[in-house]
Amino acid sequence: MPRTRNRGAHAAAHRAPRTAPRPGPPTRETPGQGVQGDGAGSGTGNANGQVGGTTVSGVARLSRATVGKLAAVVVVLGIISFGLVQGGSPSAEPTVQKFLLAWEQGQYKAAAALTTGRQDVVAGALHGAYRQLDAGDLVLQMARIIQHGSSATVWFSASVDLGSGGLSWQYRGSFSMRAVDGSWKVQWSPSVIVPGLRPGDRLAVLTSVPSRAPLQDSDGRPLVRPSRVVVLGVRPDQLAHPRHTADALAAIAGIGSSSQVYGQIIAAPSTSFLGLIRMTPATYDRLRRRLASVPGPLIVHRRMERLFDSIAPAVTGAVGTETASVLRQNGVPYRPGTTVGLSGLQQAYQRTLTGSPTIEVVLQNSAGGKIRVLKRWTGSDGSPVKTTLDSRAQIAADSALARLPRSAAIVAVQAGTGRILAVAAHQAGGMPGVSPLAGRYEPGQVFTIVSTAALLETGFDPRSQVPCKSENTVGNIRFTNRPPETGLGAQPPFSVDFAHACGTAFAGLFQQLKPSELSSAAKRFGIGATWQLRVDSYSGTIGAPQGYGQIAAAAIGAGGVRVSPLDMALAVGLVQSGAWHVPELVTTRTTAPGLAAAGRPFSSQVILALRKLMRAAVRHGAGKAADVGARPVFGQVGSSTLGLGGKGLRTAWFVGYQGKIAFAVVELTRSPSTSAAPLAGAFLRHLRAGS
User: Fold this and answer.
1) Sign of the C-alpha dihedral, residues 305, 309, 310, 315?
2) For strand 358-364 and strand 370-377, is the pairing parallel, antiparallel, or unpaired?
3) Other beta carbons less than 10 A from residue 519's beta carbon
4) Number of C-beta neighbours around residue 5 at 10 A
5) What's the CA gap between 656 and 94, in Å, rounded?
6) Cα separation of 118 and 116, whole Å?
7) Which strands, in side-by-side order, build the sheet including 224-234?
C-alpha cells in the first residue's frame, strides 16, 4: 500500500502545484488564456512608452502596420478559442490537479469520484497497484494538457519509492478526459495508473540476488564446503491469507518487516515455489514446532550450498542469511537469497563477495507471467577473494585439533614470505577458546628465541655453563620451574638449558640484557609491527621492563609480554629464512599491504646459533615429541599462566618450523606438565599424510 508522509520544501518543489499555476510561460495548451495587463505599464511597452519605434509623450501610438498585425492576432486567437472551447468549456486543469492530489495522498474514493469508472473498482485499483510493489511513497506531477473542446489528453510524471535500498522508479503516464454535463472526468481504464496495464494485470518488483562468491585458498579452491541448508518457502497460489503467512513467518524467523515478506509473496509468480528464508538444520530443528503454526502451507526444501561450513572458520568467519539481525541494523531491505558476512573475511569482503542484485519493475498477468519490463536496475555478480591459505596445511591443522579434549589453536605461515597457510582453532567444552590471530597470551619460554637472539648479539657463547636451579630470585621476583627440571647436571651448558626450556637458568642469565637490547630484538622479530589483514589480529608487546627482575621476566615471556600465536609463527619464520616478513592473508588486494617491522637484520652467526639451539630442543630436549618426518624439525616449548580470569588454566606452547613451514601451537591445560609438542607432532604427521 502506498505510504504517504510529510515532505519538506525540497520534496514539495517537485510536485504539481495544488492551487495556483506555476509562474512563467505555461507548458500546457488550454483555451481562453488571453494576455492580461496590470495598468498603463503592463507588458505593452518599454520604460519610455516606446512601441514600434513611435513615441508620443504619455501615449504610445502604433503604426498602421503594427495595428494590422495585432488585429490579425486577435482574430486568430478568437477563432482558436471558439474552436477549442466551443462556447466557453472550463479548463480541465483543476480536475486533473484534484485527481492527482487525491491519488497521491491515498484518498482513493475521492480520486475515483473524478473518473468515469465505478468508484469501488477505481478506488480498489488505485489502492492496490503500488501496494503490490510494497511502495514507500508516491509523488505525482502534472506535465501537460491538450484540450479540444469537451475532450482533453493529460500527461503526468510519477515517482515511486520502492523501498529497495533507496530505488526510485520514475515514469511518464497519460490519460484522456471528457466534459460530462459541464464537469470534467478522467476516462477510466487501468492504463491510467501505468501505460499498458490491463484488467487482471498487476505490477511487481522482481529481485534476483546473485549467489555469494567464494573465499578461495591459494589454489583457487573454495574454502567453504557444501553443507545442508533448509529453505522455507511457499507457493503463492496455495496461500489463503498471504498477509497472515508473512506476519507469522517474519515473527518466528526474526525478520524485521513482515510487509517486505508479504511484498515478495504477492510479487512472485503464483504457481512456482518461492524460497523465503534459509537457515541451518540446527536452527530449523529448534524452530520446527513454531513454524508448524504458520498458515500456509509452508514448504520445506533441503539443499546443499556453500554457505555455513568452512575449513578455516577462524579466518573466513560466519555468514548470515535473510534472518541475520545485522541486515536490519544496516537497513538492508529483505530479499530472499540475501547473505551477509557476520565476521572474519566474509564480513571484511562483504561487498566484493555479494555483488548487487538485479531489480525489475514488471507487468505481470494474472498467472504471474511477465508481460513487460517497465524498469530494470542491472546488478553485478560477486567476485571471489583468494587467500594465502593452503588447503593441505589447513586440513592438517583441523585434523590435529579435531579430537583434542582441550582448547587449542594452530597457525602456520610460509617462512620466506609471511603468507599465512593455516589458521585453526578448537574449543573444548568448559574451556575458553584460543584466538589464533588476535589472542594476547604470555608466551612463556618460547619467547626465549627472541631474547636469546638479543643475548647472542652481545657476544654470548651458547656453550657457557648456566645452572638450572629449582628456583632463582632476580631483583625482587622469584622464578621457579614448573614442573621441576631434573637430570641436567650441576653446570649444564646453555644449549641444554635452552633445549629443556629451563626458566630459572634463563632468568638468571637474561638479567644481563639491557631493556633497549631486548626491545630492539623484539622489534626485529615483528613484535609490535604494523600490518593489515582485514581481520582482527594482534602483533604483540613486551611492555616496558625496568630493573633486573622485570627484564628477566620479559626475557622468558612473562611480565608484560603478550603475543598472539601468529606473532610467534612469524618469529620462527625469521629463524628459518633469516628475515622477518609482514603477514599476508589475502592475495586479492583491495588495500595497501602492511608495514614491515623496522630494524637491521640479525647476523648470520646469530641465525645459525638459533637454528642449532632449536634443533637440539626438538631432537634431544623438551620438544622431542614434535620430531616427526624425514626432514628435521626446529622448535622450542613454553608454558605460562593464562592470566586473570583463566580459572587455573595455563597455556602450553610449541613453536617451530619444518622445511619452509613455520608454525605455532597453543594448547590450554590445567597441568604444568602438559606439553604442546605432541600436538605439533600430530600437525606435522597430518601434513605429511596430505602431501
Assistant:
1) positive
2) antiparallel
3) 20
4) 8
5) 86
6) 7
7) 274-279, 224-234, 299-310
Q: How far apart are CA 571 and CA 557, in angstroms?
A: 13
Would you say 170 and 14 are in contact if contact means Cβ atoms under 8 Å apart?
no
- DSSP letters, 183-212, are EEEE---GGGTSTT--TT-EEEEEEEPPPP
Grouping H, G, I as helix, E, B as strand and the rest as coil, residue 404 is coil
> Cβ neighbours of residue 538 under 8 Å, at least 6 residues apart?
437, 438, 439, 440, 562, 563, 564, 566, 567
Q: Kindly report whether the peptide bond that precedes residue 672 is cis, defined as omega within 30 degrees of 0.
A: no
In contact, 353 and 222? CB cutoff 8 Å: no
Architecture of domain 9-21+90-197 in CATH?
Roll (3.10)
Q: 406 and 669 in contact (C-beta within 8 Å)?
A: yes
Which residue type occupies 37? G
- CB of 102 within 8 A of CB of 110? yes
Model confidence over 385-431: pLDDT tens digits?
999 999 999 999 999 999 899 999 999 999 999 999 999 999 998 89
Q: Which helix (H) or strand (E) holds 362?
A: strand 358-364
Q: How far apart are CA 130 and CA 375, in angstroms?
A: 14
3-class SS of residue 121: helix
CA angle 320, 324, 328 (to 5 degrees): 135
Half-sphere exposure (CA, 13 Å, Cβ side) for 77? 13
Instruction: Determine the residue type at 219.
Output: D
Peptide bond into 297 cis (omega under 30): yes
The fourth-level CATH superfamily of domain 391-689 is DD-peptidase/beta-lactamase superfamily (3.40.710.10)
Helix (H, G, I), strand (E, B) or coil at 102: helix
| Pairing mode of beta strands 215-216, 385-386 | parallel
Q: What is the mean pLDDT of residues 155-171?
A: 88
Nearest to 286 by CA among 252, 237, 242: 252
pLDDT per residue as tens digits for the range 489-542: 778 999 999 999 998 899 888 888 899 999 999 999 999 999 989 999 999 999
Determine the average pLDDT of the residues in 289-315.
94
State which amino acid sits at residue 60. Answer: A
Give Cβ neighbours of residue 107 (< 8 Å, ≥ 6 apart). Answer: none
Q: Which residues contact 160 (CB under 8 A, 6 or more apart)?
A: 130, 133, 135, 137, 138, 168, 169, 170
Least Cα distance to 208 among 324, 377, 374 occurs for 377
Q: Are 298 and 249 in contact (CB under 8 A)?
A: yes
3-state helix, strand, coil in the chain (%, to 5): 30, 25, 45
> In whole angstroms, what is the distance from residue 501 CA to residue 483 CA?
11
208-383: in CATH 3.90.1310: yes
User: For residues 306 and 224, is the Cβ–Cβ distance under 8 A?
Assistant: yes
Contact between 668 and 577 under an 8 Å Cβ cutoff? The reply is: no
What are the start-end ranges of the H helices in 538-635? Answer: 547-555, 565-577, 604-619
24: Cβ contacts below 8 Å, ≥ 6 apart = none
Confidence of residue 205 (pLDDT cuts 50, 70, 90): confident
Contacts (Cβ under 8 Å, ≥6 apart) of 141: 14, 15, 16, 100, 156, 157, 158, 159
3-state secondary structure at position 35: coil
What gap in Å lies between CA 169 and CA 566, rounded to an integer? 51
Picking from 412, 376, 520, the residue whose alpha carbon sits closest to that of residue 458 is 520
Burial class (CB in 10 A: 0-12, 13-18, 19+), 550: buried
Domain ranges for the chain: 9-21+90-197, 208-383, 391-689
- Cell 622431542, residue located: 624
User: Which DSSP string do the residues of 466-477 spell out, in sequence order?
Assistant: ----SEEEETTE
Q: Which helix (H) or strand (E) holds 77?
A: helix 64-85
